[in-house]
Specification:
It is built from 23 helices and 2 strands. By secondary structure, it is mainly alpha-helical. Helix 8 (184-204) packs antiparallel against helix 9, helix 13 packs antiparallel against helix 14 (371-408) and helix 18 (484-506) packs antiparallel against helix 19.
Length: 633
Amino acid sequence: PPPPEGDRKREVDSLASVSFVEKIFFPSKSTMSNKPDEDIKNQTADDAAEAEEEVPQLSITLNILSTIQTAQNQNGLRHGDYMRYRRYCSRKMHRLRKTTKLTCGRGKFQKKAMTLADVQDVRHLMILLFEAERCWSYALDLKHELTDLQPDNHRLKFHIKRRMSKACQAAENLYKMCQDCANKRTLLESEGYFHWMQGNLASEEGKWEEALAKFEQSKAIFGELAKITDSLDSIVFSEKIEQIEPFIRYCQYNFHGSFADPAALKDLTSGKLGPYAESLKSRVEDLLTEEKTKQVEEGVKIDFNGQNLTIKNDKTRLSLQLAEEAAQTSQEGSSLKEKLGAHVHILSNLEDATRHINNEKKEAKIDGSSGASTYYKTLLQYVQYKKHMAMLNRAVVTMTNSSATFDKENEIDNILKGGKAKHTKPKDVVKTIDNALHNIDNILDILDKVHEGQVCNDLEVKQKVYTAWRCKFVALSYAFESRFREAVALMGRTKEKIQSAAQVLSNSHIKQKNDLLAMLKEMDAGLLKLKTKMDAKLAMQSFLESNPEYAQRKQAEMEKSKKNKKKKTAGSSTTASHDFNLVDTTPKMEPMPAKPIIFDLVWNRLDFPDVSEKTQQSKGILGRLGWGRLWGS
């Protein structure tokens, strides 16, 4: 039913009073209520625009690579401790979240994602940066464990990929935040860091083309930043580029499939990788092992003495392959120690190959008349040929170094003067050359001159050159023993052998032809001077033998001069060369009375007083009371 008339009137009056109060105390509200709806919408949009204009646009600066490099060098990555660096990143993130009040709950973990509205200063960007670094270092720590302890753990491999994926996601979040709140340099640096992390993830998943593209993009960005920044920052970017380049080469190797030259992989870890060395080194080592295994499986074919041999034993093939690698190392070595060490590895691997062949022959139980016996005999001859060649090369390296020492240290002049050899005696060099000639004879006995004619001719030429070399040092060994008559005769024989070797060498086609001709020419040039000195020594020796009295007098004078030299005290060069006494350094001797010596002669004639009563007096209270008698004292 409708309300009564009195109640309706009171309701109208109350509404009127409310509108009157609003007009007095809230005039803006009352006026706004009278505006049309379109004006209200326009004013709301204008207020929002003004609010956006009042919020300043952030331009945060964060040197990403410098921050990472400092943190890594100070927290374990200088020596490859990824676990320590990961723990540091976790503590750093916790401190940053606590100071920026972005903690993930108290007591119970409640993940709190960072939004653009939360970013106010550089600390917020550092949270994302160290989150990416933490996941990345965790992945490499797991990879280190996978390489050393559990190489076949597929669960661990999956965990590594998942950690690397999270690191890539954190780097992407950092890049997106820098697009809205960082300056241009930080944006470019974050983009390069993001591409580098993407390349790591793609290479871990085996996507070599994608990884190659990402690493190239990262290298290009850091290269441009190195050009426009100052010297200190450009060094950081240049070092990062040097660290990326081996990864690019590794991806190119896997993507293009250039497995023909596995030696190219050895240069990948030679650059400045810094803390990233382990992540690439393990991959390269695995790939090198795979390449060696493939070469062993394919087999080794040998053409020796007109026979084609295929080595079927895996151990024999591996030993011969290692010997070839050691031989290449000896050729590339610069110092004597490196070359001799490489020859030790060659000989040890060839000994292993000989043992494996003999074991295989023994297990096969082959008769001496069968064709397989000829196969093993030829294979053993090939290994013996390689061994004698290695011993020949080692002897050549040793005698070349000894000859150079003789020329540099003036050993020959010292020997002719009657002194001792400082470094090497001539007999030792002669022994080394004899070893080389002996190995050449053994090689010539093994080789078949019909099929290996060129190798035999080269060895015969070298034999003539080394024979002339030996003749020279035999002459020096006689001169070392003051037998100059034999030394002069051998010098004439050395001249003949040098001429004969040079003539044979000029008509040959040996590879070391120019080096051997230069050595013979140098030997011939110093031979005339050496022979002249020996002729003078021989003439002096003949004169002394014909005049024994003069020889004895000279010998006595020499011994006297040696004694005088020993008696001379050390002094200045002037005093040593001349007997000039400018100052008397010691006082002259003067006579003086001796110190008197007193003897006590009265002691035995004195009568001293008797003090026995004082010495026999009892000691203590018990002694005075006589208790000592009870104890038998």
